[in-house]
Specification:
Elements (H helix, E strand, L loop, with lengths): L14 H41 L1
Length: 56
């Protein structure tokens, strides 16, 4: 058996605080994804330029 209460009263975090935490977490994840996407785009552009230079 669990020693922790299982009723909804055990979580006293307000819905507003929970929503704020979710929004903050989502924004941080979005920023990381965007940074990775930009890094991939830069690398792709460099590789494309190298390939074109090799052909010339």
């Amino acid at each position: 058996m669990s020693h922790f209460p299982t009723t909804s009263r055990s979580d006293r975090t307000s819905p507003h605080v929970k929503a704020t935490v979710r929004e903050t977490s989502a924004a941080e994840v979005w920023e990381e994804i965007e940074a990775e996407r930009q890094a991939v785009e830069r690398r792709t552009a460099r590789l494309r330029a190298m390939r074109l230079a090799k052909r010339a």
